[in-house]
């Protein structure tokens, strides 16, 4: 038995240490590690359980870590196994999203039924996306029931996360006055549930207002085929006081049950698999331009068009032809 086969077996036997090692393997940039990672993923694909994959986004300070801790504790209390991953392309600069505030998830990180993995220090979103997607597969193989994928509200990371989860939660803080916090329309459109956090104490009335503002805004969006009546919806929670979390979980389950019954759940996963397959092919093609031979061809073509000896499309076709010839 090879090491990879052994690791696959340990993973399927739900050994946490094996999961940590497997994720380290998919995060590695070394060519031999990548090969082992591919073999591992191929071996565990289709085994294990189908977890509920939940994306969670929100700007810094809105209460993501506090929410994950309280929500995760509630789920483990129900006997569910919960994995927490992060997509944070800025983590190299900001010092890590989950790791930075591990103190806020202290209880959850000690739970035997929980697994928390901070974002690797990689700045490239593409790399983080692949690693997270593959980590989700590994978590499912290791029998986790719920996989939470946290992302900070920057750039394209929400779109990336929504392409790898079944449900997308947007966490907001109560707004002062009547501004809609400048939440981008694109993010509103991918949210399945908006949770207005910090609905407690002095912030309660502001939270109530914010929640009704967003309920109104959601009703104005175009109806999506994957939603039953009443979704997407906004609701209030208090991660700190542990309020509304059970109600939120019930809504998530109601939505997932409906989507399963109506074929949307599987259809979405299929579409996601197709999408990432296409992305990987493109990525592989791009990587072929990074070899020394390809770089030389590119340089040569660039010189030719710059000097007016030929036009860009012709020079490009010549490079592509020579690249595919040099492959076989
Ligand atoms: N009042 C109140 N404060 C909260 C709540 N959730 C989080 N906070 C506070 O908001 C701050 C930021 O929380 P954190 O979880 O670190 O936010 P993150 O940056 O989104 O991960 C901390 O001081 C938390 O104690 C809540 O439900 N109610
Ligand atoms: Mg945090």
From TrEMBL:
A single MF term (Gene Ontology): GTPase activity
Highest taxon, organism lineage: Bacteria
GO cellular component: cytoplasm
Protein family according to the UniProt entry: Belongs to the SIMIBI class G3E GTPase family. ArgK/MeaB subfamily.
Stated name of the protein: Arginine transporter
Originating species: Roseovarius atlanticus
């Amino acid at each position: 038995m090879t090491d990879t086969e052994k690791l696959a077996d340990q993973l399927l036997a739900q050994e946490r240490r094996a999961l940590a090692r497997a994720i380290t393997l998919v995060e590695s940039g070394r060519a031999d590690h990548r090969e082992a990672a591919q073999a591992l993923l191929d071996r565990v694909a289709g085994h294990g359980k189908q977890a509920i994959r939940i994306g969670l986004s929100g700007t810094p300070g809105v209460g993501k870590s506090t929410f994950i801790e309280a929500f995760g504790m509630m789920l483990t209390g129900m006997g569910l196994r919960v994995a927490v991953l992060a997509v944070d392309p800025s983590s190299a600069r900001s010092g890590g999203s989950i790791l930075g505030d591990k103190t806020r998830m202290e209880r959850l990180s000690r739970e035997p039924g929980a697994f928390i993995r901070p974002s690797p220090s990689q700045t490239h979103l593409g790399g983080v996306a692949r690693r997270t997607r593959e980590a989700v597969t590994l978590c499912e193989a290791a029998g986790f029931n719920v996989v939470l994928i946290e992302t900070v509200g920057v750039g394209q990371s929400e779109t990336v996360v929504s392409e790898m989860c079944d449900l997308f939660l947007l966490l907001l803080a109560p707004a002062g006055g009547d501004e809609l916090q400048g939440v981008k329309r694109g993010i509103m459109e991918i949210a399945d549930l908006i949770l207005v956090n910090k609905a407690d104490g002095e912030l309660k009335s502001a939270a109530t207002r914010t929640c009704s503002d967003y309920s109104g805004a959601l009703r104005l969006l175009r109806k999506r085929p994957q939603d039953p009546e009443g979704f997407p919806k906004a609701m209030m929670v208090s991660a700190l006081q542990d309020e509304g979390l059970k109600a939120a979980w019930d809504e998530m389950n109601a939505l997932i049950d409906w989507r399963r019954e109506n074929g949307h759940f599987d259809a979405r996963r299929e579409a996601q698999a197709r999408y990432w397959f296409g992305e990987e092919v493109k990525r592989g093609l791009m990587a072929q331009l990074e070899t020394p031979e390809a770089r030389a061809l590119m340089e040569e073509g660039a010189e030719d068009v710059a000097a007016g000896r030929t036009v860009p499309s012709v020079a490009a076709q010549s490079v592509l032809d020579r690249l595919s010839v040099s492959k076989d």
